[in-house]
Each structure stands twice: as structure tokens, then as C-alpha cells.
Amino acid sequence: MIKERLQDLRSAMKERNIDYYVVPTSDFHESEYVGEYFKARKWITGFTGSAGTAVIGLNEAGLWTDGRYFIQAEEQLKGSTVTLFKMGQEGVPTINEYLRKNLPNGGTIGFDGRVINTRLFEQFEEIAKDKNGKIYSSEDLIDPIWKDRPSLPKSKAWILEEKFSGASIPEKLKRVRDKMKEEGANVHIATCLFDIEWIYNLRGDDIEHVPVNLCFTLIKENEAYYYINEEDVDGKVRDYLKNNNVTLRPYEAIYDDVKKLSASDKVLLNKAQVNSRITGSLPEGITIIDKANPSELMKSCKNETELRNLVNAHIKDGVAMTKFMYWLKKNVGKIEMTEYSVAEYLRELRAAQEGFIDISFGTIAGYGPNAAMMHYSATKDNCATLKPEGMLLVDSGGHYLEGSTDITRTFALGPVSDIEKKHFTAVLRANMNLSHARFLYGCSGLNLDILARGPMWDMDIDYQCGTGHGVGYLLNIHEGPNGFRWKIVPERKDSGTLEEGMCTTDEPGIYLEGKYGIRLENELICRKGAKNEYGQFMYFEDMTFVPFDLDLVDKDEMTKTDIARLNEYHKKVYEVISPYLESDEKIWLKEYTKSI
After folding, report:
1. Tell me, what's the pLDDT at 467?
2. Is the predicted pLDDT of residue 366 greater than 90, yes or no?
């Protein structure tokens, strides 16, 4: 099937004299997760992971993805004739290096200009020019051959009340306009769905588990335009926007409206996000100020209303997760359980919490060897049956009106080996090392990542991903510019300074292909600590309160400090979560949070 699809695409490429056609994992907004309509890369290669780019040549095809998906991609690409390129590995060319080497003289690179950001467009353009070639970006070649392609998503926009957002549209627009003025811009174009929905306090359901609508915005000194499918907006939202001096425009009108800007305008936009069709529609000679959207940093630093709400959301989520752990421990081996069925049960426990909207991403429930695939996804028809032995990794989260959560726990389902306990304890120590960090303002996750990787590096073990990512407030579960990572990975955009109010995950792990995977994840709030002659000190506050599985802890692998930290954390877990549990659950939780 994949071979036939590739052949159909190559026929279309030959008709247009295209040598290489690029199919990214992207929508018109450079979103990380996309709706079904935009999953062209999945359709043309068979690889289902959330990150990757396909490059289709007339005689060969490649798929580039990162370390989270190496194992999965190798399996899914078998027999497809698509070659896996493991990003970041020694000797593996980047997409640009590959195209620069293989594009023939006078050749053409093709892609849909709406799903390629401007910065990447410029890189491809430079490669083509160096080969006396050209770019073909005016057409989506996948669309005519994808006969049963899903339609563009449509969902009703809804208002996130100020008691949850903590700030009004006028307040947020003023902050954005102040930053525009500071940058010397009189126009701002934003295409990132999360920035736009944050500014206008709106949410939707156009992407599975990502509560946003497809939209654009154009902001001037005294005007603001919100572009959305008009069928997605009811009278209440129309009035809300009008009352806040925001003009509603059709979704596709952005491409014509930017043509009407003046050549003397100075436009603030992020070339790494705004698609090349939009920038290609700007008047010739217009000034582009290529910088991050002002709202990116603003929304990552949660206000006090958002932080209070987030703490409450994590209590609700902690109750659901603790109830799940209790049920799992009591019933494994007694009732039939699969990776899929336990994920569904956990969803039900979250849905029982007041203010629940949706899970925040597809739950990763991996048993045994499946847990070694970082973003493994079980389905009803393709999942492992759980037995009262080995380990189960569950990475999950929820969207509540009070914010979003992301948590991972690894559970012992029965007997485990000494080496599994040793590895679990190393990951636990790593998690606590990072959560207890004290650091001077100005540090980024690059400075702190060693605290988490240290216990694994001491054993000559590493994990092929970052240690943590920023989390949005009822938006994207992966939010920049903050994160934890030992080296800069430009496409992840997560090496920003750690600011007060940022929420970041702490999720080190060990993944042994064919054996097992271990990950432990909490969410942290960045807070200001003491300020003295040495500068402003910062620290982290745990938001996640769910037991770490004592059945997997090897006390002999821990220092006195490690033990004290674990006991302190478990004491807080019991204090926070036990009031919401039934009597038998409380008794069980007391045992699983006991001091060791």
C-alpha cells in the first residue's frame, strides 16, 4: 500500500519536474500535533509517530525522526522502501545535508508552502539556488492522490473565563503591543495556535487532545484580527470578540489580508512558525522583524491565578492516578488487563474529576519491552496482556479547566529483577536530584540537565530525548521556550532561561530495547528563592503528588539524602491526596507512602 502511494506521488512529481518532495509533520501553523487532515507524512510512509519528516525522491525515500521513535519507526517502515534516518546520530545526514548532496544540478525541491515554515523555506531555497535549481511550493501533491482524506477539522470555539485565565484580552493585547513597539514593529502576525488562543482566551477541539481551533491573528497598533472558520464561532464568542475590539475574519482571508499591508510596514513574526505561503504574500519590500512571538514567553510564565488553578488540577489528577495505582496493584493477575484497557480505565478515573475536559495526550501504557519505545501507543486490537510480573510504564495526563497535567509512573506488577530495581532507583534519584535543584537566575535547562542524567551516566547509560519540557495552560502539553536537555536541539526550541512561573516536566528514564522502559515524571513550578549579593536564586516546587512505587525501590542504591527526599515527598503525597480517597484506599496509600 505504501509502495503504491509513493508511486502515485512520484508520478505527480514527474509531471511537474520535481526531484524531491518534502512532507513534514505539520499543519498550516507549525503545530507539533495535528488533526487527521494534516497527517500526510503518516499516510505516505506508514510511520505513525508524532514527529518526523519524509523526503520522497524519484528513486528513493527517507524518513527523519528523533530518538523517541527510533524503535517504532524501524518496525513501521519495514517493507515500505522508506529508509529511516536517525536524527542526531553519528554519520546520519540532516535533511538539508541530504538534499544538498542528492539534488541534481537544475533540480527542483517541492512541498506545500502552507506546511513549511518560512525559515525552512529559505534554507531549501538556498540549496536549490546552489544547484541552479528551484522551489515548487504552490501545490499540495498529496491531496489529489489521498482519495479518502479526512476533511479539515471543525469544532466550536469556547471562552476560557478570566477566573481561569487570570487576564483579559485587552490586558494581553496591551502587553503584546508594548513588545511590538519595543521591537520597532507596527504589525504582528502570529500563526501559532497556542499563542493566539492564549491572547484571546479561547479554546476549541480541532486537534485531538489539544484544545484549540485552527486560527490566525494579525495585530496592529489599534486593531486586532482573529481568523477562524466562521462556522466554528457562535453568537456568544462573536459578541465576546466584538466587545474586546477584535475583528472576526474568515480563516483563509489571512492570505489576502497580508497582501494589503503597506510596503512601509514593519512586521514582527517568527519565521520558524509562520508558513511560507503567508510571508510569500507580503508586499515586496516590507520589513520583517524575525523574532519569537511576544506571547510565547508571556504564556509560559503562568500568572498567580493560573498557578493556583494548576495546583488544584494536579490534586485532582493525583487523586485519579493514585486510585489507578491502587486498583492496578490490587487486581493485576485477578482480572483481565491489557495495555489498552488500563489506559481506558485511567481515562474514566480522570473523567470523574470535576472540571475534566479531556486527556492531554494519548496515554502511553507500555508493558515490558513495549515500554522501551518512548512514545509507544497501544490499540484495542494491538496491545499486550498484563501479567502479575514485570513492569508497566504509564505516561498520561489530563486537561481540566484549571490547567493541564503530565505524569509518568512505572509500576511493578509482580516479581522484578535486581537490575530492574537498580535502574528504577537510579531514575528515581535522577528525578529527585532535578526537582531539588537550587540555581541562579539566568540558568536554562542546559545547565541543570546533568543533575538528572548523572545517575544514568554513572552507569554509562543515556536516554535519547530531553529530560523535560514546558507545559501549556490548557493548550499544548509541549510548550517552549523552557525545557531540560543536555545539548541544544534547534528544532525543539526549549533552551530558554528558566523564569518564575514556568511549568516544566522532570522525566528522566532508562530504555533498554527488547527488555523494558522506566520513566518517572513530575511537573515543577519555577519559583524565586533568596536574593543576595550572589544574585537571584531560583528553585522548583513540585506540583505532582502520586506515589513512586516502593516495590521497585532498592534502598541500598540510595544515599541518606535520597532517602530523606523520598520520605519527605511521600509524606506530602499522603497529606495532599488521602482526604479524597475511600477508607481502603487511604490504608493502602499509607503503606505505599511509608518512610523507608
Report:
1. 98
2. yes
Task: Give the three cell numbers for residue 291.
Answer: 523574532
- Which pLDDT value is given to residue 526? 98
Backbone angle region of 432, left / alpha / beta, with phi > 0 → left and psi within -120 to 50 → alpha? alpha
Is residue 431 within 8 A of residue 508, CB to CB? The reply is: yes
Is there a single domain that holds both residue 279 and residue 319? no
d(Cα 365, Cα 465) in Å, to the nearest integer? 18
Helix axes 118-130, 95-102, angle to 10 degrees: 20
The verdict on 214 and 310 lying in the same domain is: no
Whether 530 is covered by a domain: the verdict is yes
Q: Which tens digit of pLDDT belongs to each residue from 298-315?
A: 999 999 999 999 999 999
- N- to C-terminal Cα separation, the chain: 56
| Residue 104 belongs to domain spanning | 2-145
Report CA-CA distances (Å) from 334 to 170, 324, 331, 381, 584: 57, 15, 5, 22, 18
**With 90 as the cut, is the pLDDT of residue 355 above it?**
yes
**What does the pLDDT look like over 403-417, one tens digit per residue?**
999 999 999 999 999
* Residue pointed to by grid coordinates 480522570: 350
**HEC secondary structure over 369-424:** HHHHCCCCCCECCECCECCCCCEEEEEECEEECCEECCEEEEEECCCCCHHHHHHH
- Is residue 68 pLDDT above 90, yes or no? no
CB 271 within 8 A of CB 295: no
Structural contact between residues 118 and 279, judged by C-beta atoms closer than 8 angstroms: yes
In sequence order, what DSSP letters do the residues of 249-268 get, joined into one string?
EEGGGHHHHGGGS-TT-EEE
349 and 249: one domain? no
**What's the predicted TM-score (pTM) here?**
0.95
Q: Are residues 114 and 192 in the same domain?
A: no
Task: With a cut of 90, say whether residue 492 has pLDDT above it.
Answer: no
Q: Which three-class secondary structure state does DSSP give residue 485?
A: coil
pLDDT of amino acid 237: 98
Residue with cell 515500554: 371
CA count, 13 A, side-chain hemisphere, 457: 9
Give CA–CA dist 120/141, Å, rounded. 19
In angstroms, rounded to a whole number, what is the distance separating the alpha carbons of residues 421 and 412?
Answer: 9
- Same domain? 433 vs 352: yes
Residue 150 lies in a domain: no
Looking at the fold, whether 317 and 277 belong to one and the same domain comes out as: no
* Shared-domain flag, residues 175 and 308: no
In 385-521, beta strands by DSSP E? 391-396, 398-400, 403-404, 407-412, 438-440, 468-470, 479-484, 503-506, 509-512, 516-519
Of 299, 314, 345, the residue at which a domain comes to its end is 299
pLDDT of amino acid 122: 98
Cell of 455: 545517575
Q: How far apart are CA 211 and CA 441, in angstroms?
A: 32
The four Cα atoms 321, 324, 326, 329 give a dihedral, to 10 degrees, of -120
CA distances from 43 to 79, 176, 284 (A): 15, 38, 36
pLDDT in tens, 413-462: 999 999 999 999 999 999 999 999 999 999 999 999 999 999 999 999 99
Report the C-alpha gap between 191 and 69 in whole angstroms.
Answer: 27
375: confidence class by pLDDT, cuts 50, 70, 90 = confident
